[in-house]
Write a structure and sequence with these properties.
There is one protein chain. The protein is an alpha+beta fold. It is globular. It starts with a strand and ends in a 12-residue tail after the last helix.
Length: 83
């Protein structure tokens, strides 16, 4: 069985915590990633990879994707006040 890496993120600005899990296939690795994400409220996103290739990305329902966070599109625009 291959060893997958689960990268647990708490946002785009901090390095992820990495954990290794052994799984039969990509589907099982993603399920393990989802379980790991649900076990701790400290993390908002999980990325599962095998041999350096991303298998899938998971997020909490209330969170924008990591790409949106990194691009800044998830940050609300400040209100424009009239002069």
């Amino acid at each position: 069985m291959p060893d997958y890496r689960i990268y647990l993120h708490d946002g785009p600005d901090t390095p992820p915590a990495a954990e290794i899990v052994t799984a039969n296939d990509h589907v099982e690795a993603l399920v393990l990633g989802e379980i790991r994400l649900l076990l701790s409220s400290a993390f908002t996103h999980a990325v599962v990879s095998l041999d350096g290739q991303m298998v899938g990305s998971l997020k909490r329902d209330s969170q924008p994707s990591l790409d949106e966070l990194a691009a800044g599109s998830a940050r609300p625009e400040p209100p424009v006040l009239p002069l």
